[in-house]
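Q: Make up one entry.
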Amino acid sequence: MFKFKRPVGLFLCGGGALGSWQSGVLAELVRQGLHFDVVAGFSVGALNGAAYCYNKTGELRQVWRDMKPETVLSLKPRYYNIPLELYQQHEGSLANKFNFFFQNQLAKLTLFSNKQLYNLLNGWLVKSGPQFPRNIKFYVISHAVEMKLPYIVRFDGSTQSHNLSFTDALVASCSIPMIFPPVPVEEHGRKHHLVDGGVIGIATINLSIFEGCRTVIMIGNSRPEDMDFHGKGPIGYFERKARRMLALHTQKIYESRVFLNSEPDVYLIKPPTDLGLNLLEFDGAKCEKAFDIGEAEAKLFLHNLEQPARP
Protein backbone atom coordinates (compact mmCIF):
# COMPACT_ATOMS: atom_id res chain seq x y z
CA MET A 1 0.00 0.00 0.00
CA PHE A 2 1.24 3.45 -0.94
CA LYS A 3 2.18 5.45 2.17
CA PHE A 4 0.89 9.01 2.07
CA LYS A 5 2.65 11.69 4.06
CA ARG A 6 0.47 12.71 7.00
CA PRO A 7 -1.65 14.60 7.86
CA VAL A 8 -3.85 13.65 4.90
CA GLY A 9 -6.71 15.86 3.72
CA LEU A 10 -9.69 14.90 1.57
CA PHE A 11 -11.58 17.40 -0.58
CA LEU A 12 -14.86 16.29 -2.16
CA CYS A 13 -16.38 18.39 -4.95
CA GLY A 14 -20.06 18.68 -5.83
CA GLY A 15 -21.99 17.31 -8.77
CA GLY A 16 -25.46 16.03 -7.86
CA ALA A 17 -26.06 12.49 -9.11
CA LEU A 18 -22.50 12.46 -10.47
CA GLY A 19 -21.53 12.11 -6.82
CA SER A 20 -22.36 8.41 -7.15
CA TRP A 21 -19.04 8.10 -9.00
CA GLN A 22 -17.29 9.99 -6.21
CA SER A 23 -18.90 7.66 -3.67
CA GLY A 24 -17.38 4.69 -5.49
CA VAL A 25 -13.92 6.25 -5.40
CA LEU A 26 -14.20 7.13 -1.72
CA ALA A 27 -15.61 3.75 -0.68
CA GLU A 28 -12.76 1.94 -2.42
CA LEU A 29 -10.05 4.19 -1.00
CA VAL A 30 -11.41 3.53 2.50
CA ARG A 31 -11.69 -0.20 1.81
CA GLN A 32 -8.03 -0.19 0.77
CA GLY A 33 -7.10 1.24 4.17
CA LEU A 34 -6.81 4.99 3.57
CA HIS A 35 -7.88 7.29 6.37
CA PHE A 36 -8.03 11.05 6.47
CA ASP A 37 -7.33 13.66 9.13
CA VAL A 38 -9.22 16.58 7.58
CA VAL A 39 -12.23 16.35 5.26
CA ALA A 40 -14.02 19.14 3.40
CA GLY A 41 -16.72 19.12 0.77
CA PHE A 42 -19.53 20.99 -0.91
CA SER A 43 -22.85 19.81 -2.31
CA VAL A 44 -22.92 16.03 -2.77
CA GLY A 45 -19.26 16.06 -1.73
CA ALA A 46 -20.37 17.23 1.72
CA LEU A 47 -22.78 14.29 1.91
CA ASN A 48 -20.04 11.85 0.97
CA GLY A 49 -17.78 13.52 3.53
CA ALA A 50 -20.45 13.08 6.19
CA ALA A 51 -20.70 9.39 5.28
CA TYR A 52 -16.94 9.11 5.86
CA CYS A 53 -17.15 10.87 9.22
CA TYR A 54 -19.84 8.43 10.31
CA ASN A 55 -17.85 5.45 8.98
CA LYS A 56 -20.67 4.65 6.55
CA THR A 57 -18.82 4.59 3.22
CA GLY A 58 -19.56 0.86 3.06
CA GLU A 59 -23.25 1.73 2.79
CA LEU A 60 -22.90 4.16 -0.10
CA ARG A 61 -23.38 1.61 -2.88
CA GLN A 62 -26.75 0.58 -1.43
CA VAL A 63 -27.79 4.21 -0.99
CA TRP A 64 -27.17 4.92 -4.67
CA ARG A 65 -28.61 1.59 -5.83
CA ASP A 66 -31.88 2.45 -4.08
CA MET A 67 -31.93 6.00 -5.40
CA LYS A 68 -35.05 7.24 -7.16
CA PRO A 69 -36.02 10.75 -8.29
CA GLU A 70 -38.70 10.96 -5.59
CA THR A 71 -36.07 10.15 -2.96
CA VAL A 72 -34.63 13.63 -3.46
CA LEU A 73 -37.01 15.66 -5.63
CA SER A 74 -40.43 16.87 -4.51
CA LEU A 75 -41.94 19.61 -6.68
CA LYS A 76 -42.70 22.81 -4.77
CA PRO A 77 -41.92 26.00 -6.72
CA ARG A 78 -41.12 29.09 -4.67
CA TYR A 79 -39.54 32.50 -5.23
CA TYR A 80 -36.90 33.99 -2.90
CA ASN A 81 -36.18 37.70 -3.15
CA ILE A 82 -32.50 37.50 -2.27
CA PRO A 83 -29.46 39.16 -3.94
CA LEU A 84 -28.37 35.96 -5.66
CA GLU A 85 -25.95 36.18 -8.57
CA LEU A 86 -25.22 32.97 -10.41
CA TYR A 87 -22.99 34.60 -12.99
CA GLN A 88 -21.15 37.86 -13.48
CA GLN A 89 -21.24 40.01 -16.59
CA HIS A 90 -19.09 43.13 -16.58
CA GLU A 91 -19.01 43.86 -20.28
CA GLY A 92 -20.64 43.00 -23.56
CA SER A 93 -23.71 44.11 -25.46
CA LEU A 94 -26.90 45.32 -23.83
CA ALA A 95 -28.57 42.08 -24.92
CA ASN A 96 -25.93 40.01 -23.14
CA LYS A 97 -26.24 42.07 -19.98
CA PHE A 98 -30.01 41.65 -20.04
CA ASN A 99 -29.56 37.90 -20.53
CA PHE A 100 -27.34 37.66 -17.46
CA PHE A 101 -29.79 39.78 -15.47
CA PHE A 102 -32.63 37.47 -16.49
CA GLN A 103 -30.62 34.37 -15.52
CA ASN A 104 -29.87 35.75 -12.08
CA GLN A 105 -33.52 36.63 -11.53
CA LEU A 106 -34.60 33.17 -12.67
CA ALA A 107 -32.16 31.62 -10.18
CA LYS A 108 -34.27 33.01 -7.32
CA LEU A 109 -37.07 30.65 -8.32
CA THR A 110 -36.59 27.20 -6.80
CA LEU A 111 -38.45 24.18 -8.18
CA PHE A 112 -38.22 21.57 -5.42
CA SER A 113 -38.67 21.32 -1.66
CA ASN A 114 -35.66 20.33 0.46
CA LYS A 115 -37.87 18.19 2.74
CA GLN A 116 -36.86 14.97 0.99
CA LEU A 117 -33.20 15.73 1.51
CA TYR A 118 -33.76 16.42 5.21
CA ASN A 119 -35.63 13.12 5.50
CA LEU A 120 -32.82 11.23 3.76
CA LEU A 121 -30.13 12.67 6.02
CA ASN A 122 -32.09 12.35 9.25
CA GLY A 123 -33.04 8.77 8.44
CA TRP A 124 -29.56 7.65 7.43
CA LEU A 125 -26.74 9.69 9.00
CA VAL A 126 -27.98 11.91 11.80
CA LYS A 127 -29.84 9.14 13.62
CA SER A 128 -26.43 7.61 14.39
CA GLY A 129 -25.92 10.25 17.08
CA PRO A 130 -24.00 13.50 17.59
CA GLN A 131 -20.51 11.95 17.85
CA PHE A 132 -18.55 10.83 14.79
CA PRO A 133 -16.95 7.38 15.10
CA ARG A 134 -13.89 9.05 13.58
CA ASN A 135 -11.99 11.82 15.36
CA ILE A 136 -11.86 14.18 12.43
CA LYS A 137 -12.16 17.80 11.38
CA PHE A 138 -14.96 18.12 8.86
CA TYR A 139 -15.68 21.31 6.92
CA VAL A 140 -19.02 21.78 5.13
CA ILE A 141 -18.90 24.49 2.47
CA SER A 142 -21.84 26.49 1.12
CA HIS A 143 -22.18 30.02 -0.28
CA ALA A 144 -23.54 33.01 1.66
CA VAL A 145 -25.65 34.95 -0.82
CA GLU A 146 -25.56 38.33 0.93
CA MET A 147 -21.80 38.20 1.56
CA LYS A 148 -20.99 36.69 -1.86
CA LEU A 149 -18.44 34.46 -0.16
CA PRO A 150 -18.07 30.80 0.76
CA TYR A 151 -19.61 29.93 4.12
CA ILE A 152 -17.67 27.24 5.96
CA VAL A 153 -18.93 25.37 9.01
CA ARG A 154 -16.42 23.27 10.97
CA PHE A 155 -17.35 20.15 12.91
CA ASP A 156 -14.73 18.71 15.27
CA GLY A 157 -15.50 15.06 15.80
CA SER A 158 -19.22 15.68 16.31
CA THR A 159 -22.26 17.36 14.80
CA GLN A 160 -21.95 20.37 17.11
CA SER A 161 -21.14 23.80 15.68
CA HIS A 162 -21.54 27.34 16.94
CA ASN A 163 -24.24 28.55 14.59
CA LEU A 164 -25.71 25.90 12.30
CA SER A 165 -26.98 22.37 12.84
CA PHE A 166 -25.22 19.52 11.07
CA THR A 167 -28.24 18.72 8.89
CA ASP A 168 -28.83 22.38 8.01
CA ALA A 169 -25.18 22.75 6.99
CA LEU A 170 -25.37 19.70 4.70
CA VAL A 171 -28.69 20.76 3.15
CA ALA A 172 -27.39 24.31 2.62
CA SER A 173 -24.36 22.94 0.82
CA CYS A 174 -26.69 20.99 -1.50
CA SER A 175 -29.10 23.88 -2.12
CA ILE A 176 -28.48 24.25 -5.85
CA PRO A 177 -29.91 27.59 -7.03
CA MET A 178 -33.06 27.12 -9.16
CA ILE A 179 -33.42 23.60 -7.72
CA PHE A 180 -33.57 23.73 -3.89
CA PRO A 181 -34.45 26.63 -1.55
CA PRO A 182 -31.71 28.45 0.39
CA VAL A 183 -31.13 27.70 4.07
CA PRO A 184 -31.27 30.78 6.36
CA VAL A 185 -28.70 31.37 9.08
CA GLU A 186 -28.28 34.26 11.52
CA GLU A 187 -24.82 35.41 12.52
CA HIS A 188 -23.82 38.53 14.45
CA GLY A 189 -27.38 39.77 14.25
CA ARG A 190 -27.54 39.49 10.46
CA LYS A 191 -29.49 36.98 8.41
CA HIS A 192 -27.83 35.21 5.50
CA HIS A 193 -29.11 32.73 2.94
CA LEU A 194 -26.92 29.76 2.15
CA VAL A 195 -26.85 27.94 -1.19
CA ASP A 196 -24.63 25.48 -3.04
CA GLY A 197 -21.58 27.45 -4.19
CA GLY A 198 -20.54 24.93 -6.83
CA VAL A 199 -22.56 26.60 -9.58
CA ILE A 200 -22.00 30.19 -8.43
CA GLY A 201 -19.78 32.04 -10.87
CA ILE A 202 -18.23 34.23 -8.15
CA ALA A 203 -17.34 31.44 -5.70
CA THR A 204 -13.79 31.47 -4.29
CA ILE A 205 -13.53 28.00 -2.76
CA ASN A 206 -9.91 26.92 -2.25
CA LEU A 207 -7.68 24.45 -0.39
CA SER A 208 -6.68 26.80 2.45
CA ILE A 209 -8.59 24.54 4.85
CA PHE A 210 -5.79 22.01 4.42
CA GLU A 211 -2.92 24.21 5.56
CA GLY A 212 -0.61 21.95 7.52
CA CYS A 213 -1.49 18.79 5.59
CA ARG A 214 1.29 16.99 3.74
CA THR A 215 -1.06 15.18 1.35
CA VAL A 216 -4.43 16.21 -0.09
CA ILE A 217 -6.64 14.00 -2.22
CA MET A 218 -9.30 15.75 -4.30
CA ILE A 219 -12.17 13.76 -5.76
CA GLY A 220 -14.02 15.77 -8.38
CA ASN A 221 -17.03 14.83 -10.46
CA SER A 222 -16.14 16.94 -13.49
CA ARG A 223 -14.03 16.42 -16.58
CA PRO A 224 -12.36 19.12 -18.70
CA GLU A 225 -14.88 18.26 -21.43
CA ASP A 226 -17.66 19.60 -19.18
CA MET A 227 -16.46 23.11 -19.95
CA ASP A 228 -18.09 22.64 -23.36
CA PHE A 229 -20.96 20.37 -22.35
CA HIS A 230 -23.94 20.65 -24.70
CA GLY A 231 -27.44 20.14 -23.32
CA LYS A 232 -30.82 20.50 -24.99
CA GLY A 233 -33.97 22.22 -23.75
CA PRO A 234 -34.52 24.08 -20.44
CA ILE A 235 -32.95 21.31 -18.35
CA GLY A 236 -30.10 21.06 -20.81
CA TYR A 237 -29.47 24.78 -20.43
CA PHE A 238 -29.19 24.38 -16.65
CA GLU A 239 -27.00 21.29 -17.08
CA ARG A 240 -24.60 23.13 -19.39
CA LYS A 241 -24.23 26.13 -17.07
CA ALA A 242 -23.89 24.03 -13.92
CA ARG A 243 -21.37 21.60 -15.42
CA ARG A 244 -19.23 24.44 -16.72
CA MET A 245 -19.13 26.10 -13.30
CA LEU A 246 -18.36 22.82 -11.53
CA ALA A 247 -15.53 22.05 -13.94
CA LEU A 248 -14.16 25.57 -13.60
CA HIS A 249 -14.30 25.50 -9.79
CA THR A 250 -12.68 22.07 -9.63
CA GLN A 251 -9.74 23.31 -11.68
CA LYS A 252 -9.44 26.54 -9.68
CA ILE A 253 -9.56 24.66 -6.38
CA TYR A 254 -6.82 22.32 -7.58
CA GLU A 255 -4.69 25.26 -8.72
CA SER A 256 -4.99 26.89 -5.27
CA ARG A 257 -2.63 24.19 -3.90
CA VAL A 258 0.34 26.41 -4.74
CA PHE A 259 -0.67 28.86 -2.00
CA LEU A 260 -0.37 26.32 0.84
CA ASN A 261 2.75 26.91 2.92
CA SER A 262 2.88 23.24 3.91
CA GLU A 263 3.39 22.36 0.21
CA PRO A 264 1.34 19.16 0.26
CA ASP A 265 1.27 16.57 -2.50
CA VAL A 266 -2.14 17.15 -4.09
CA TYR A 267 -3.80 14.45 -6.17
CA LEU A 268 -6.89 15.13 -8.28
CA ILE A 269 -9.05 12.12 -9.16
CA LYS A 270 -11.69 12.78 -11.79
CA PRO A 271 -13.98 10.66 -13.98
CA PRO A 272 -12.07 8.92 -16.78
CA THR A 273 -15.11 8.92 -19.07
CA ASP A 274 -18.62 10.28 -19.51
CA LEU A 275 -20.67 8.73 -16.70
CA GLY A 276 -23.90 8.79 -18.70
CA LEU A 277 -25.64 10.78 -15.97
CA ASN A 278 -27.12 14.23 -15.62
CA LEU A 279 -26.78 16.22 -12.41
CA LEU A 280 -30.38 15.57 -11.38
CA GLU A 281 -30.72 12.08 -12.84
CA PHE A 282 -31.22 10.12 -9.64
CA ASP A 283 -31.64 6.76 -11.34
CA GLY A 284 -30.48 3.87 -9.14
CA ALA A 285 -29.23 1.65 -11.98
CA LYS A 286 -27.24 4.44 -13.62
CA CYS A 287 -25.89 5.67 -10.29
CA GLU A 288 -24.69 2.19 -9.34
CA LYS A 289 -22.93 1.89 -12.68
CA ALA A 290 -21.17 5.21 -12.02
CA PHE A 291 -20.28 3.92 -8.54
CA ASP A 292 -18.60 0.88 -10.14
CA ILE A 293 -16.58 3.17 -12.44
CA GLY A 294 -15.48 5.12 -9.36
CA GLU A 295 -14.35 1.96 -7.58
CA ALA A 296 -12.29 0.93 -10.60
CA GLU A 297 -10.71 4.38 -10.87
CA ALA A 298 -9.70 4.31 -7.19
CA LYS A 299 -8.00 0.94 -7.69
CA LEU A 300 -6.16 2.30 -10.73
CA PHE A 301 -5.13 5.42 -8.81
CA LEU A 302 -3.58 3.39 -5.99
CA HIS A 303 -2.00 0.90 -8.42
CA ASN A 304 -0.28 3.73 -10.32
CA LEU A 305 1.07 5.21 -7.09
CA GLU A 306 2.65 1.89 -6.18
CA GLN A 307 4.58 1.66 -9.42
CA PRO A 308 8.31 2.51 -9.07
CA ALA A 309 9.36 5.79 -10.63
CA ARG A 310 11.27 5.48 -13.89
CA PRO A 311 14.92 6.61 -13.80
Remarks:
- The radius of gyration is 19 Å.
- The chain has a mean pLDDT of 89.
- The chain has nine helices and ten strands.
